[in-house]
Design brief:
The complex is a heterotrimer of chains A (about 200), B (about 325) and C (about 800). Chain A is built from six helices and six strands; from the N terminus they run αβββαβββαααα. Chain A has about 200 residues and is α+β, with helices and mostly antiparallel strands. In chain A, α3 packs across α6. The N terminus of chain A is likely disordered. Among the domains of chain C are: about 190 residues, Aldehyde Oxidoreductase, domain 3; about 160 residues, 2-Layer Sandwich (Aldehyde Oxidoreductase, domain 4), CATH 3.30.365.10. The longest helix of chain C is centred in the C-terminal third of the chain and has 28 residues. The chains are: A alpha+beta (about 200), B alpha+beta (about 325), C alpha+beta (about 800). Chains in contact: A-B, A-C, B-C. At the B-C interface, α13 of B face β1, α3, α9, β28 and α23 of C.
Chain lengths: ~200, ~325, ~800
């Protein structure tokens, strides 16, 4: 299935202002993003897009079907984001997109082109200071094996952006999309309460 | 069993106008796959159990977002996320049944991206079918679940027809209870289908759980004013309180005047391939008080006619109990 | 005793990297030219590979090679082969690996491989293969035979010296057993007894006889067991995920068929193991050897589904138990039969299940009989308290029943039978290093306010009832004979080397605090050296079986004592007087009578280098392990070396004990319950690291909740297909399935056989929680017994409805 087989008449007003990365689609004035690797089953045809990760705009080749977790880990070298199930069943890959937490294993990279992606690597202040959640998680010895920790950190950061002083119950619900196989839930919740200044 | 994990090669279309999406959907037909939040989609595709040639990503279509008031109720764009639905002031105020149901779907992250359209259009979760076995629903000629040794704890009590999978959606029963109207567009125009008719059982079409066909785009859901501010009850019982699909859920809408139930819609989830309206319960409670006495008198009607399999008998008392609670809480 | 470090919280060196994402796990390592390997796994539960045609895959652009069982040394059942060929024994068993330039190409290539299989009969229920004429999971039989000459295999694993045999029961015997009766005249694979069981039963006023089933379930460590290997100058560099470090080094070298000196094993962080990564696992052989075959760095990526298949699982049990209580509430006799579901190539853990009963209830006489049977399900191995924890959970409500029938308060009955310091247990009637379990029971009961709660009303609201329960966990928690190694360097720092793995319990660092304690030095001047065999690590214990704390505080301590002796000798030689005239503290060795006279550690380190010999590692004790010797050799002349083998006295079993109390509020309409109180107390000797203990007790509690209420294998007996390969079907508890807050504490009473009094606690933390929850569920339902784990809402709803479907037939591996 290549782009040439689709023939839809479009008007100028449907153009999108951001990048149209498919040359074929752009030349025909298509109003949709269209990415295809069909001409090269080995995955050679990659499309260059700009994504804003941790405050930096990065240019990266992205396959049409590529997940954000894949792009972050394998193309941008941001391996702090973990993939433990690759099915949205654990939360280890949680990142923020425009301040909201998502499973990056179940988000297409082509869907975050105009949005701000924040990963665990982007939390430190410019002077190197740890984010309040990170500092609190250290103090409360929140991580156990650590494989889910990046995701837990990101969900806690998302929560505190939306609700700076959550109750423990609110924190429990907000964090509930992050599985911890070691069962360190109590310690993570203590960390959230500490990071929000409610535990000293 | 192959253990696939990568998204295989496919094309991706990202239309920004609903007309383009409809056009693409029509042109690509069975070769295309519409994606909202994608939370059901990506698993199928990573497992290579479904192999579309192209994804049509609807997320750029602004007209399919937002919740607005209409002359008769509200209209919810199909791309409205479950989190938005759970938190929307208007929905919470008038149709808390739907916001409650949306708030119990899967996990926070899934609700943040999962859409109402996707939640109602998602495929069944029968584990045999999901594992890629060639069952009736997958185009084969047998059912693995409905056998003497089938592991069918999560399967259907009602409406089995070769397939015994259940409707997994939490919002679907709520929409049926609220007499929602589903707005569907395709190349030939727009049609509006009652939620109750939108979901179809295996007796009607074993390959589909809704009336949506190749080329159709569910663009919006309309909730009529009729049930605004009625008395509602939603409860979902699942093994784990996060991620898991309902073992049984109940969505109830009741108009109660002077202590008497004038009219009601009682709909159970996860007991049949479609949301199951409990019409005998609805009839039995009409004109009665919403109280324990009524509950005790009518609850057993809920499971009447059930045909349990080997491991799902519990769904009968469970649905009866949930009806009882809907009438007493 | 007042300690400088022991019993105080500290920040383990790896925590910060975990919260910043800098901590690297196996899959995070990349290397130029790295290729990606993926597995093709069996679609059959039993059979063999007739032929493989990979030509189409190999012709694909970017595909580099295929690796099959023929590339590995032959393997015979019941050994768990890295890649199967002649003996496929479960769906999902790896058959071959494909390597390609990308993960995606490798996966695409797998679709192009054609394999001709031959089917064999299969079985998913151990009782089906036990039945005369029933199918066997292996062509040669259904049960493990241990070849005594080769020595016992490690718990839950299959090592050499094992064979497949066959045990069958008649239909009458199987039927009796299924129905909860003793199978008269049946054959067993293992058997032990002590005391006069019949005579003791005759003394018992209350006798309870019950069947039971526990269903095994996958470990599902969050980090799948991916590996990465590359070869350079004849050495293999291996990034892996093990919960132990040096103890696996020799085994992994053997799997790769290389000299241990040529293996660099790198594993700083491990994303969970729970017993499934104690020792190197078979697929690691493929990673290393395939990398060598292709002469490229190679990542073997294991998916979540594959982690289910090859990531190990707990054994299931099907059993029969008869227990007798005497007038004083003491357990007079126990008779127990356990059929283990050992999956493919597991050993089963029935013996340790029986030992749990023996220790925790101290029956005067006891008999155990068991059979470990293979099934065509995933390989089973050690999982957090194998045997003991599932026994604890299914036993608790049965013992509750005995207490009720005997007219005893459930707590009082436990109190009467609690293992005291002179407790004996198991077939050998061995003793304990110490026990403060009676005190722990009292402490936990007081924290929970048992007496008060027992008296509270049962019904809390419309169709809601309270249930309270208690449970106990045990695991043997300590070994001896490992080596300690440290180096005081000329920078004045103390480099504490450990070969303990980093499972995430932080005990790898906690145990080193015993060395800092002995050296009376500040923790800030200590550097923890671990996670890479090129860093000169000692031979340390495997991290599993709650072993680390007891075992490794001992080896850390002896290394520190060796360093202290050397420091004093150096000071005496340099400054005069006898070694005994000197003391150590504040990173100095000084004259006790005149503290101004002394050497800094930095100065002493330089003098050690100048002196050479044993002081700087040119000479070392003969009794240390070859791994440690290699490390000392590599470190010689770089500072003052403290190195010793732990030869401190050790007698009896060092126990890890825990007791939990649980209160639930159960909704009779839905079968769901809220855990309204979770209180658990650890009896693990001196508490070394309070936050670490709390982490272990909370995490164990969550695991207990998983065992009691959620997790199990489900297999379709029609086709041998597992239902729960993913996390959502396996149902590990989430934030919203466990209490919002759990209350835990430690007894903090010293074990005399550890220099700092410490024992381990990992496993019992789960067993006590699972048992207490099972006990509470039963209590909420007026003592009803489900006789199984897990108990799920459907069972509770059916029971309350009295619809005759309350549990169905007791069977493992099904709903």
């Amino acid at each position: 299935m290549g782009p040439n087989k689709v023939n839809i008449t479009l008007t100028r007003r449907r153009f999108i202002k951001s990048v149209i990365f498919s040359a074929a689609a752009a030349s025909s004035g298509a109003g949709w993003y269209m990415a295809s690797a069909a001409s090269n089953p080995a995955g050679g045809v990659e499309r260059l897009v700009s994504i804003n990760v941790n405050g930096r705009v990065r240019r990266v080749d992205v396959l049409p079907q590529e997940t954000l977790a894949h792009t972050l880990r394998y193309k941008l070298g941001l391996t702090g984001t973990k993939v433990a199930c690759n099915r949205g069943e654990c939360g280890a890959c949680t990142v923020l997109i425009d301040d909201v937490n998502y499973y990056s294993c179940s988000t297409l990279t082509h869907n975050v082109k105009d949005r701000a992606v924040l990963t665990v690597e982007g939390l430190r202040a410019e002077d190197g200071t740890l984010h309040a959640v990170q500092a609190a998680f250290i103090q409360e010895l929140s991580p156990a094996c650590g494989f889910c920790t990046s995701g837990q950190v990101m969900s806690a950061v998302a929560l505190l952006k939306a609700n700076p002083k959550p109750t423990r119950q609110q924190a429990r619900e907000a964090m509930s999309g992050n599985l911890c196989r070691c069962g360190a839930y109590d310690h993570y919740l203590n960390g959230v309460m500490r990071a929000s200044g409610q535990l000293s | 069993m192959p253990s696939n994990d990568n998204m295989p090669e496919m094309s991706l279309y990202q239309p920004v106008q609903v007309e383009d999406a409809i056009s693409l959907a029509g042109t690509l037909a069975e070769r295309g796959w519409l994606v909202g939040g994608g939370q059901d989609t990506y698993g199928w595709i990573k497992d290579r159990a479904k192999r579309p040639e192209a994804l049509i990503d609807l997320n750029g279509i602004e007209s399919m977002r937002g919740i607005s008031e209409t002359a008769d109720g509200i209209e919810i764009g199909a791309l409205v996320t479950l989190t938005e639905l759970a938190n929307n002031a208007l929905v919470k105020e008038r149709y808390s049944l739907l916001s409650s149901a949306a708030g119990r779907v899967a996990s926070p992250q899934i609700r943040n991206i999962g859409t109402l359209g996707g939640n109602v259009a998602q495929d069944v979760r029968c584990w045999y079918y999901r594992r890629g076995l060639n069952c009736y629903r997958a185009g084969g000629n047998l059912c693995y679940a409905d056998t003497p040794e089938g592991q069918n704890r999560e399967h259907a009590l009602f409406g089995a027809s070769r397939c015994v999978a259940v409707s997994p959606s939490d919002t679907a029963p709520a929409l049926v209870a609220l007499e929602a109207q589903m707005v569907i567009r395709n190349a030939s125009g727009e049609r509006v289908v009652a939620a109750e008719d939108f979901f179809i059982g295996p007796d009607v079409d074993i390959r589909h759980t809704t009336v949506l066909r190749a080329g159709d785009v569910l663009t919006a859901v309309r909730i009529p004013a009729k049930w605004a501010n009625a008395e509602f009850y939603f409860e979902k019982v699942a093994d784990r309180n996060v991620w898991d699909f309902a073992l049984v859920s109940i969505s109830a809408a009741m108009k109660v005047t002077n202590g008497t139930i004038e009219e009601s819609r009682m709909v159970a989830g996860a007991v049949e391939c479609t949301p199951r309206r409990l019409t005998s319960v609805e009839q039995a409670i009409q004109g009665r008080a919403r109280n324990q006495e009524t509950a005790d008198a009518v609850a057993s009607l809920a499971s009447q006619g059930a045909k349990p399999l080997n491991y799902n008998h519990f769904k009968m008392p469970l649905m009866d109990n949930l009806v009882k609670r809907a009438l007493t809480v | 005793m007042t300690y400088m470090h022991i019993g105080k919280n500290f920040t383990p060196p790896d925590v910060e990297a975990k919260v910043t994402g800098a901590a690297r796990y196996t899959e995070d390592f990349r290397r130029d030219g790295m290729v990606f390997a993926r597995l093709l796994t069996s679609p059959l539960p039993s059979g063999r590979v007739v032929s493989i045609d990979a030509s189409e895959a190999l012709a694909m652009e970017g595909v580099l090679g295929v690796f099959t069982a023929d590339d590995l040394p032959p393997s015979l059942p019941p050994a768990n082969p890295a890649l199967a060929k002649d003996f496929i024994t479960y769906i999902g068993q790896p058959i071959l690996a494909v390597a390609a330039e990308s993960d995606l190409i490798a996966e695409n290539a797998i679709e192009k491989i054609k394999i001709v299989f031959e089917r064999r009969p299969f079985v998913t229920d151990p009782l089906d293969t036990l039945l005369e004429g029933g199918p066997d999971p292996y062509p040669t039989g259904n049960t493990l035979i241990r070849n005594a000459a080769a020595g016992a295999a490690a718990a839950g694993t299959t090592a050499s010296g094992t064979d497949v045999g066959r045990i069958k029961w008649s239909l009458d015997q199987v039927t009796a057993f299924r129905n909860g009766r003793e199978p008269v005249g049946a054959t067993f694979g293992e058997e032990w007894a002590y005391g006069d069981v019949a005579a003791e039963f005759a003394q018992c006023k209350t006798i309870v006889e019950e069947p039971f089933v526990t269903i095994g379930y996958p470990h599902h460590s969050l980090e799948p067991r991916s590996g990465m290997a590359f070869w350079e100058n004849g050495k293999c560099y291996f990034h892996g995920s093990l919960q132990s470090h040096t103890v696996g080094h020799a085994q992994l070298s053997a799997m790769l068929e290389i000299d241990p000196a040529n293996l660099v094993f790198i594993n700083e962080n491990t994303g969970g193991g729970f017993g499934s990564k104690i020792f190197p696992y078979p697929i690691m052989a493929v990673t290393g050897k395939f990398a060598r075959k292709l002469n490229r760095p190679l990542q073997m990526r294991i998916t979540r589904e594959e982690e289910f298949y090859i990531g190990s699982a707990r054994s299931g049990m099907q059993g029969w138990l008869k227990v007798g209580l005497k007038d004083d509430g003491k357990v007079g006799a126990v008779d127990v039969i356990i059929i283990n579901d050992a999956g493919s190539g597991g050993g089963g853990s029935a013996g340790s299940s029986a030992e749990h009963i023996s220790l925790m209830y101290q029956p005067t006489a006891m008999r155990f009989r068991g059979v470990a049977l293979y099934t065509n399900t995933t390989p089973r191995g050690a999982q957090r308290g194998p045997g003991q924890n599932e026994m604890a959970s299914v036993l608790a409500p049965i013992m509750d029943k005995a207490a009720r029938e005997g007219g005893f308060d459930r707590l009082a009955m436990r109190r009467a039978n609690a293992p005291r310091p002179d407790a004996k247990f198991g077939p050998r009637q061995g003793g304990l290093s110490s026990s403060y379990m009676p005190e722990a029971i009292e402490k936990a009961a007081a924290m929970f306010r048992w007496d008060e709660r027992v008296a509270q009303p049962k019904v809390t609201a419309n169709n809601k009832v309270r249930g309270i329960g208690l449970g106990m966990g045990f695991h043997s928690a300590g070994a001896n004979g490992y080596d300690g190694l440290l180096r005081i360097a000329t920078d004045g720092k103390i480099y504490l080397h450990t070969g303990v793995g980093n499972l995430g319990t932080y005990s790898y660092a906690g145990v080193l605090r015993a060395a800092a304690e002995a050296l009376q030095c500040s923790w800030e001047n200590c550097v923890v050296v671990h996670g890479n065999s090129d860093l000169n690590l000692p031979h340390s214990t495997y991290q599993g079986g709650s072993n680390t704390m007891f075992t490794e505080t001992r080896s850390s301590h002896v290394a520190a004592l060796d360093a202290i002796r050397k420091l004093k000798e150096i000071a005496a030689a340099d400054l005069g007087g006898a070694a005994d005239d000197y003391s150590v503290g504040g990173e100095r060795v000084f004259l006790t009578s005149d503290q101004a006279k002394g050497l800094t550690f930095a100065e002493a380190a330089q003098k050690a280098i100048d002196l050479g010999g044993e002081y700087s590692g040119q000479v070392y004790p003969e009794d240390i392990n070859a791994t440690t010797k290699r490390s000392v050799e590599a470190m010689k002349g770089t500072g003052l070396i403290g190195v010793a083998k732990d030869t401190l006295p050790k007698q009896g079993t060092a126990p890890g004990f825990a007791i939990a109390f649980v209160e639930i509020e159960m909704d009779l309409d839905t079968g769901k319950y809220d855990i309204t109180d979770y209180t658990a107390v650890a009896e693990c000797g001196t508490v070394v690291h309070p936050q670490g203990l709390s982490q272990a007790m909370n995490g164990g509690g969550v695991w207990g909740i998983g065992m009691a209420g959620y997790e199990r294998h489900v297999y379709d007996p029609q086709n041998g297909l597992p239902a729960n390969v993913g996390l959502y079907q396996s149902k590990p508890p989430t934030y919203l399935d466990v209490p919002a807050q759990m209350l835990t504490a430690g007894m903090d009473m010293p074990d005399p056989q550890s220099p700092v009094g410490a024992r381990g606690i990992g496993e019992p933390a789960q067993g006590c929680g699972a048992a207490a929850l099972m006990s509470a569920i039963s209590d909420a339902l007026d003592g009803h017994l489900f006789n199984r784990t897990p108990v799920t809402p459907d069972m509770i709803v059916n029971h309350v409805a009295q619809n005759g479907f309350n549990t169905g037939e007791l069977k493992t591996n099904t709903f």
